[in-house]
Write a structure and sequence with these properties.
The complex is a heterodimer of chains A (228) and B (544). Chain A is built from 8 helices and 2 strands, in the order αααββααααα. Chain A has 228 residues and is mainly α. Chain B has 544 residues and is an alpha/beta fold. In chain B, 36% of the residues lie in helices and 22% in strands. In chain B, the strands form 4 sheets. A 6-stranded mixed sheet of chain B has the order 5-6-7-3-8-9, with helices on both faces. The radius of gyration of chain B is 25 Å and the shape is globular. The chains are: A mainly alpha (228), B alpha/beta (544).
Chain lengths: 228, 544
């Protein structure tokens, strides 16, 4: 997460092309290195390239403040538009890679465990987050079933806003009761006991994490130092 | 050291739940807590584990001691001694993978990483879950989840395990396996359970609480069960069957032993009385299914051909995960991406308008609360009324039929389990539906509630409603069904008439009556179709 904050801050502050290239490279490497579902990532890669190219094209062709004419193959735009478009395209690609890359490469459980072990996140909050994640599925399922029940009880007439409002209470009640039951169960399993021993999964920073951080910061500084 | 309870009374929101209960559970005794719905069985377990009053408010009087620990005041010490398994295992899980879940409790008990790894390996082996270490919990079946729940508890090596209806969501095979695993742990357990027939062999004491929250019996199960005295509580099926046979002079003793019953029945040549009735004319077809198949995620269900006859009750029997609910969802028009044809109300299901379909079709969900979204029973009924063209008189007729006329101003969330189930069926049958789909009508119900639900299903049938019920309860199947289909893995359906005993080769579960009839028909194929205690009783009354 530190790396993400670091990149995002610099992306917002910096318009340097080389800096953006270094950030994009690091982001892409990060995703490729840690990802497990490569096929899915490849499709993401194609989508990001198309999206970024569109941003570049829009800026290159229609940047109002551009003064110096510039041509790329048969396209005629401005030099300022090309630089701005390039920077924005890389920035967008980096942000998408980093944010979506997290979803593909990091399990919520590992992330929360890491927060608990490295950032001293309270275990109560950590496990509450995990239970909430599990509840999303339950909530979705319940909503689908309530809608189906309502449709049948309305003899197939469309579900209108007032019907939807009626769904709020049972859904809310279900979630609260499930949360209550989970809290009791986890307490009985020892949640209230003060943990002093080992974590089963060790989430402490490893050499490769430190190396990755150093290389990232180094590349960014290097990129920021050379202006176009 | 033991569990001692003296003059325990419990009051929740000014309502007396338990009254003056005393008992002592000695070391090594496994205890079954019995009683009707609402008697306070779960409350007793909650008091013994300190959940009441520490998590759920309640006023307790009397003394409770678990190896000298007061559960209401010293929870940290208590947790070192006890483990708890809940009805729905999903409530117990906080992580995403099997080994992380087992490690959760061990981490809290300050066990070193190496030992955690060893214990995970050991319990997974013991629970027959080897190779499941990295499996996502969400991908496990109901039975596997409940096994994982007990593995989590067993890994912490508690002295006592408390279980609150742990098999409510499991099919008969998974239930039997669950009890085998529980027995294998060699821990002392106290369990609330309705499935007496399956658990009776591994318990040594019974606590019976009556509907007033008073202790009616505490002692050995044999003394409570081995008599034909009429009681309000459920007895094992083999005892009930023994009583039926003893009354007719076929059996001399009430031991509830399978071999004695089988031998007596065969010696008395009861099978020669066999006169299976022809089923009569086959009525018109209400739904015709041809080459039906459906894919759901990585699962493929090939249901094939199936017919639902007008005015008949069709039962689909099958274990957890074979595709029963998916089958209902297709017929209810919820899943439309199926292959094959489903002709319902004279039209292909995909082409049927929603209004036409749901004017004629009702669907009773497994969880009755899914159907409720108003603040009182009467509002629920009015809501359905405003959406259909049914006269008030008809509604009152149904209300009386469902015994719900006296709770019309109560919130549907605050009524008993049986009333919730009855109300959910009523809301779906109102509007004069022609076809009713019912998903597991008796799941998690005690004997009495189950009997009432079955009686209700038979009354709905008398009113001409066609029904398709999916269940893994053989009592419902043979007590309510005209046609019974067995669904195997992959969704294949084999259909039999209710009086056709060749269905027995398709049924593999621990039901003692079915096992007895299987054994008798193996030795003497000419035998009447008697698959419930009631059917035995009726048959003996008529023929012996």
């Amino acid at each position: 997460m530190f790396v993400v904050f670091f990149y995002v801050t610099f992306l917002i502050l910096n318009m340097n092309v080389k800096f953006n290239i270094s950030v994009l490279v690091i982001s892409f490497l990060f995703v490729i290195m840690s990802a497990k579902r490569l096929r899915l990532l490849l499709s993401l890669f194609v989508a990001v390239i198309v999206f970024s190219f569109t941003i570049f094209l829009m800026n290159f062709l229609f940047f109002a403040a551009g003064k110096t004419p510039y041509s790329i193959v048969f396209l005629h735009g401005t030099y300022e538009g090309a630089v701005r478009g390039g920077v924005l395209a890389m920035r967008a690609a980096s942000v998408i890679f980093l944010s979506v890359g997290y979803l593909f490469s990091t399990e919520p459980f590992s992330m929360v465990q890491s927060f608990m072990q490295n950032l001293r996140l309270s275990e109560k909050i950590g496990y509450a987050l995990l239970i909430a994640l599990r509840e999303i599925y339950l909530f979705k399922n319940s909503l689908v079933n309530i809608e189906r029940a309502m449709l049948i009880r309305k003899s197939g007439k469309p579900i209108v806003l007032t019907d939807r409002l009626k769904m709020v209470l049972p859904l809310f009640a279900m979630v609260v009761r499930k949360g209550e039951r989970s809290a009791i169960a986890l307490e009985m399993r020892g949640m209230i006991l003060k943990r002093k021993g080992d974590y089963y999964r060790d989430m402490s920073l490893k050499t490769k994490d430190v190396l990755f951080l150093i290389i990232s910061i180094g590349l960014c500084i290097l990129g920021a130092g050379f202006n176009i | 050291m033991a569990i001692r309870v003296k003059n325990l009374s419990l009051e929740i929101e000014n309502k007396k739940i338990l009254k003056d209960i005393s008992f002592t559970i000695e070391n090594g005794e496994n205890v079954l807590v019995l009683g009707p719905s609402g008697a306070g069985k779960t409350s007793l377990i909650n008091v013994l584990t300190g959940i009441i009053p520490l998590n759920i408010p309640g006023k307790i009087s009397g003394n409770i001691s678990i190896d000298g620990i007061n559960p209401s005041t010293d929870r940290e010490k208590l947790i070192e001694k006890v483990g708890m398994v809940f009805q729905n295992p999903d409530d117990m899980f906080a992580t995403l993978r099997v080994e992380d879940e087992i490690a959760f409790s061990l981490e809290r008990k300050n066990i070193r990483r190496g030992e955690i790894r060893e214990r995970i390996g050991y319990v997974l082996k013991q629970m027959n879950l080897e190779g499941f270490e990295n499996r996502e919990i969400a991908t496990l079946s109901g039975g596997e989840k409940q096994k994982l729940a007990i593995a989590c508890v067993e890994a912490t090596e508690p002295k006592y395990i408390f279980l609150d209806e742990p098999t409510a969501l499991l099919d008969p095979i998974a239930t039997e396996r669950f009890f085998t695993f529980l027995h294998q742990t060699k821990r002392q357990f106290i369990i609330v359970e309705h499935k007496i027939d399956t658990i009776i062999d591994i318990i040594s004491r019974v606590i019976l609480i009556n509907e007033n929250g008073e202790l009616e019996y505490y002692g050995e199960p044999e003394y409570l069960f081995n008599s034909c005295k009429k009681t309000r509580y459920y007895k094992p099926k083999l005892i009930n069957l023994s009583c039926v046979l003893k009354e007719r002079g076929i059996l001399k003793n009430i031991s509830g032993k399978k071999s004695e019953i089988i031998n007596s029945v065969i010696e008395n040549k009861m099978y020669f009385q066999n006169t299976p009735k022809p089923h009569g004319d086959v009525p018109n077809i209400a739904v015709e299914i041809k080459n039906l198949s459906f894919s759901y995620g990585e699962k493929d269900f090939g249901y094939g051909n199936f017919k639902i006859y007008n005015g008949m009750t069709h039962i689909v029997l099958g274990n957890n995960g074979v595709g029963k609910t998916t089958f209902l969802n297709i017929l209810a028009g919820f899943e439309r991406n199926y292959s094959g044809n489903v002709v319902m109300f004279g039209e292909e299901l995909r082409r049927l308008e929603r209004k036409t379909l749901y004017k004629n079709l009702g669907y009773v969900f497994q969880n009755p609360e899914t159907t409720f979204f108003n603040s009182s029973v009467s509002e629920e009924i009015e809501y359905t009324l405003s959406n259909s063209e049914v006269e008030r008189d008809i509604i009152m007729k149904w209300l009386k039929l469902f015994h719900l006329e006296e709770i019309d101003d109560v919130s549907p969330y605050n009524i008993s389990t049986g009333e919730k189930r009855r109300l959910s069926i009523l809301l779906m049958v109102l509007g004069e539906k022609k076809l009713l789909l019912i998903d597991e009508p008796t799941f998690g119900q005690d004997y009495e509630t189950k009997e009432r639900t079955m009686e209700l299903i038979n009354r709905i049938k008398e009113n001409g409603v066609t029904m398709l019920i999916v269940t893994h309860d053989t009592d419902v199947a043979f007590g309510c069904g005209d046609f019974i289909s067995v669904m195997t893995d992959g969704g294949q359906l084999k259909t039999y008439k209710n009086n056709d005993l060749s269905i027995l080769k398709e049924i593999e579960n621990g039901d003692p009556i079915i096992n007895i009839v299987k054994e008798i028909t193996r030795r003497q194929p000419e035998f009447p179709p008697l698959l419930t205690v009631k059917q035995w009783g009726n048959y003996c009354e008529k023929h012996i």
